[in-house]
Every structure is written in C-alpha cells, then in structure tokens.
Write a structure and sequence with these properties.
Helices cover 38% and strands 30% of the residues. With 148 residues, it is an alpha/beta fold. The chain has a three-stranded mixed sheet with strand order 1-2-5, with helices on both faces. It has a two-stranded parallel sheet with strand order 3-4. α3 crosses α5 (130-147). The longest helix is centred in the last third of the chain and has 18 residues, at 130-147. The radius of gyration is 16 Å and the shape is globular. 24% of the residues are buried.
Length: 148
C-alpha cells in the first residue's frame, strides 16, 4: 500500500473553513506538487504546511513556495482533530476528501461519569486519511502560529 499525496486549498471566512482538493494521487513527485500549488495561486505570501519531509521542504522553498512542516508532536493528532471540529467545515470539488469522511472511523471509549460509549478524537488505524490530513495539518498549524 503506497501512500497517496493530497494537496488542498483552505479558505478562511470567520469561523468557516472551506476545503478544496487540488491533488490526490499515488507516486507524486515534488515538482508536480509545486506546479499544482503555483497553478492554484500559491505565492510567497501564502501559508503552506505539509508533512515532515526536509527534501521536499527545501525543494519547494527553492521554487518560491513558503513550505512549512506541519506542527506535530505528542497528542497532536487528537489536538488537531479537535481544532478542526471547532470550525464550520465545508468541502467543495473534493471527492476523495468526501469519500474519506464517509469511511473515517474514530475509536470508542467509555465515559467514566455516565458509563456511555463515546467517540474519541482518535482515528482507527488502517483507513485512508490523506485528504483529511491536509486540512488538519493546515488548521492545527495555522492555529498554533496564531497563539505561539
């Protein structure tokens, strides 16, 4: 199973976040990512976050794309899902993202106070979440940029 590369554009309007899928493919090289970003309006003043890949970061920066590695660390997966859920989220022209949303599963736990089964902000491993990771990286990293 080869990971897919997902590139998306996020539009911010107050408490609303709009996501537009730009790329979702297996085996994409960094040159294609740069082309997709530039063709979709990325400039040196854009905010671009992605997975931790130093070679890709260096290459994209040389192409004028202000790539930053997404904030990660202990509990960042749970924290980033919580952060995304704080906003009103809308998706357009994003078939793979919508498909992942339909199949995305969260782990369950038991609320110690009520004894009720509840969903946790922890995804079940083994499901595609490449398109979902793109907006999650952006929202979490962008929010950490504001408060740090």
């Amino acid at each position: 199973n080869v990971d897919k590369t997902s590139v998306g554009k996020v539009y911010i309007d107050g408490n609303k976040r709009y996501y537009h899928e730009l790329l979702y493919e297996v085996g994409v090289d960094t040159d294609k990512i740069a082309k997709v970003l530039i063709d979709n309006g990325c400039t040196t003043s854009s905010l671009v976050w992605g997975d931790h890949d130093k070679n890709a970061s260096i290459y994209l920066r040389k192409r004028g794309i202000p790539f930053r590695m997404a904030r990660k660390g202990p509990n960042s997966l749970t924290a980033s899902i919580s952060k995304v859920n704080e906003y009103d989220n809308y998706y357009f022209d994003s078939p793979n993202l919508e498909k992942e949303l339909e199949t995305y599963l969260y782990d369950k736990g038991v609320d110690l106070l009520t004894g009720n089964e509840v969903y946790l902000n922890v995804p079940v491993d083994g499901f595609d979440d490449h398109s979902l990771s793109a907006p999650r990286y952006f929202i979490y990293s962008h929010s950490m940029r504001i408060i740090s």
